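One record is set out below.
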Amino acid sequence: MDGSEILDIPLPDDEAFTKFILHYKQLITMYESAVRCVAMRLSIMEKEADTTGKHNPIRSISSRIKQPLSINRKLRNRGMPLTTKSIMENLHDVAGVRIICEYLSDVYKVRDNLLVDGFMELLQEKDYIKTPKLNGYRSLHLIVAVPVPFQTGVQKVICELQLRTTAMDTWAALEHSLRYKEDRPCGPEIDRELLECADMLAETDVKMQKIAEQLNIFEN
């Protein structure tokens, strides 16, 4: 593809395009603000554990805002228009926060601590730890509405939270790299081997949890 082919892509009229870009920037600002609100509450949780000498259930925190091409692709696949209203109403994973924990019990402790005071409204919960996906994927997914204060008032912004252990995150990252990023075909044999790896790591999580309980890690 050369420069002339790129320039031949039709664009909407200037006024409509400018209006969409303005609204899209405002929308992304909302999602970025929601992520910061979640990160702030998680940071408070971490600092409280550090200052009290208690076990810190959070190992690491990362966040992302879905890229425009990915947003457009997902809406098109669902037969929905690319508008800011459509994005807000139909996509719940534009803003995402991933929380990595050391132990299985930490995952549910962080979940409970985030929701205990009602600051975030839980809209949906999918527990792929208790009920893994068929490919072996494990994680706790929460869709929450985060109240974000703006000059015009408080806006509830939908955000996806993924909570998992280090072992679950390692498997998910490697599986994604093998299956998707390298664009390599995976047959039934590879699928079985990946599932076996997921199951072995799940057993490791259970054993590590038991060892931590024996050492009274969670009582410190």
Observations:
- The longest strand covers residues 153-165.
- Residues 14-52 form the longest helix (39 residues).
- Strands lie at 58-65, 95-101, 121-127, 140-150, 153-165.
